Amino acid sequence: MNQSPASSAVRILVVDDHDVFASSLAHVLAAEPDMTIVGTARSIEEARALVPQVLPDVVLMDHRLPDGDGVAAIPELQALRTSTNYVVLTASTSDQVLVAAIEAGASGFVSKSRSLDEVRSAVRAAHSGEAVISPEMLARLLPRLASRRDPARVELTDREYEVLSLLSEGLTNNEIAASLVVSVHTVRNHVANLSAKLGAHSKLEALSIAIRQGLLPDR
User: Fold this and answer.
1) With 0-12 CB in 10 A as exposed, 13-18 as middle and 19+ as buried, what is 151?
2) pTM as predicted
């Protein structure tokens, strides 16, 4: 399924093996003026072939796929196009699944039981570099991320530490900018710099790595 609206539209790839769900979701999202569906895939193998072809900005990734774990496949798919953001679609509320998604580099997750409005919001948030997770859920999951310590430790600037701390509170770029009395552009630069230092593909993955390296206090 392909659309061809303005080039500024968010390019979305839907990866889900339930045809009716995937088609319905694609149809609804394609109706949005700022979104376009560049493809649908029913398996990790199909996603692997499509990502470098259709160049999605956001991939909506099912957790359970016929040929494996969609969450576990994210790092491999991310390597095919590092600028793509992944949002996990899951019917599970297990902390184990959600933590795995964070550590795999996903921008966040949306339960399949949530409204289509929330899926739309998740796509837009992921595309703009935001974390797709509520502050309450983030607070619940952060302690789980500290279970494995990483002996490596990167050096961050004082400002990057401030931004990282505010990220851990679930704040958006706009909220961080207001807190630090700087521009959103400046915050984006700080997030990009600390993510690059940590080798992270998303804000959530940056938090995961930072916690394992002891850059944030245990919660």
Assistant:
1) exposed
2) 0.87
